[in-house]
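ok trying this again, last paste got cut off
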Amino acid sequence: MCDPDGELFIKPCVPAEIAFYQSALLGHKAFAKLMPEYYGTLCLSDITDVPSLDRQVPAAASHMTAEFKEEAVHMAKETVAEAVEAAEAAEAAARAASQGKQDNIIWNENKSRKIATNTSVVLENLAYGFKHPNILDAKLGRRLWADDAPKQKKERFDQITKETTSGSHGFRVAGMRVYKGSENPADLDDEGYRVYDKTYGRETVTSENVVQEMRKFIFNKHSGIDDDLGKHVASKFLEDLKQVEKVLEAEESRMYSASLLFTFEGCGKALREAIEETQQLAEIRQNILSVTSSNGDNVREVDGLTKPTYADSGIADIPKQAKIPDFSASRIDSGIVLDDDDGEIVLQVSETGLSLSERRSR
């Protein structure tokens, strides 16, 4: 679910996922900065009511309307039975795995693309604020299964690695959506996007054409993104990727079937306006710094950095970040990929904001 404004992303999860977010925040702060903001968890059950939502996630409660909270409560009461059934099945599987029998477990693919649970994580929606966000989910790594995966799953995912760029390049396009990604209207959905599902990354993208195919995500003259603008976006992604690499190399980590989510403003006109506004704000900040630095009374030390104060400058304080879409590489756990088998979620944009709907591809 998303809140009506599309600022929050509420996603069903398993306990291991909650532990992952919490451990990152507590002991791996540099890594946590690569992820969307984590607001906490919601436990939705047959006794859930609106006041309990406010108590569980106070940092996010102010972003939710009364109607949205009522909808969440309604959903909770409908899905609690599924959660109980799934918990019992998971417990049985865990007992078998703990006895060293995981290779004998029959792996059943999740056809419904849903996790039957009564617990959800509340995250920042990284598509919030964009007019027409382009989104690409890149599945990382050559090994896509964890140690306790059933033998059948290991074999299937090893075969996927062998047949795709996961094996040749160490990553695979799990899905992407591109605003005005085709001049043929028949290729676009109702919101004007061309959607590339999991079969695209498995069957169309190869080691020979991977660069050419991924150019379609950024370089798109149909939406007003020419080569110069596209190179600017690509350079920003490269900067972020180098930072991701630096953080991951700083300490040992193991993540199987993890992804990086890339998102940027897909409308060339809106993107240019955002860049120009960002540059203007940067120039204003620099001018303020130059003016206030000439008066020692107006400069203070903050975390070892010289920063101006504005009390005597007669100029209003400039916010730390412009309230405009940024174009950086970030990860959100269900931007496109929903489960281990690349189930797809599409972010839909309407006049009333962002909402989520599931798009199944067979």
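PB: full thing came through this time. The mean pLDDT is 75.
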